Amino acid sequence: DRIVSANSDDIERAAEAALRPRRLEEFVGQPVVRDQLSLVLHAAMNRGATPDHVLLSGPPGLGKTTLAMIIAAELGTSLRVTSGPAIQHAGDLAAVLSSLTEGEVLFIDEIHRLARPAEELLYVAMEDFRVDIVVGKGAGASAIPLSLPRFTAVGATTRAGLLPAPLRDRFGFTGHLEFYDAQDLERVILRSARLLNITIDQDAAAEIASRSRGTPRIANRLLRRVRDWADVRGSGHMDLAAARAALAVYEVDELGLDRLDRAVLHALCTRFRGGPVGLSTLAVSVGEEPETVETVAEPFLVREGLMARSPRGRVATAATWQHLGLVPPADGAT
Ligand code: ADP
After folding, report:
1. Where does the chain bind Mg(2+) (predicted)?
2. What global pTM score does this model have?
3. What is the ipTM of this complex?
């Protein structure tokens, strides 16, 4: 997978687990969400009650799973983990719910991907702490209500807008995670380096931070790759030169763009004179599926102002030409 992907796979998850902050005060950045969450949790604890259900929204890799774990830790309870795609049938969710113990936190990742019947079961469970177990089929079927212990659901979604309103309304609190600024990412990197027993100069951490696309997951991954370089080709110590050399090997440039991002921009400027060009045409010209370009490269490029979408297709911006060191055609679209 791409080194600058915001998603992780199973192997990487093990490496990530070691770097997760365990308590709210260790969680770097996101002051607004941290403060709000701290209030929600402490108010409930003072009342001796279970906190409201919590929805966390934001792009991948910003700390939603970490926060769910922190919520359980702050409450002194255990965490149960599931996800929208893992629940195939409403019965799967009923089984998870009915095995919860009093006060537990149930984390549902990618909650926007729950199938409709499971979603409906979840409404009732969240609101009334009850599931209706259907026995029998057809006309003879009947629902047996089963009461559940009070639990706190923590849902995570990449886009709160994708959630149906009735489900969204069941959450007493929604925290929106924002991309991190370079300063906070630098703190993430310095913290991770400490945990991994890596010695790193501050300017090296800043260099990695500025190429991490506002995402702690990417920052931690780049840190590991720079460590590899420092161990194998350097002195083991991570200084600015090591960080730059390692990131050059992995073809991650100063803005955090990788080979695919640059290929897309390059094609847009040199083959299509800065556009507008249709997504499929652009994708074919770099040998990729349109979906890959649209979901993997485009969001970051658009967010950084390196590409724009117009009704007639993708267009280069002044920043695109500048980043590639190219001169736009005098009569060009941009
Ligand atoms: P998400 O669930 O939003 O995809 P995760 O919670 O799995 O993201 O975070 C990805 C990685 O980034 C984890 O290794 C986590 O430790 C690290 N991370 C995320 N947010 C922070 C933060 N605020 N401070 C320190 N590390 C963080």
Report:
1. 65
2. 0.92
3. 0.99
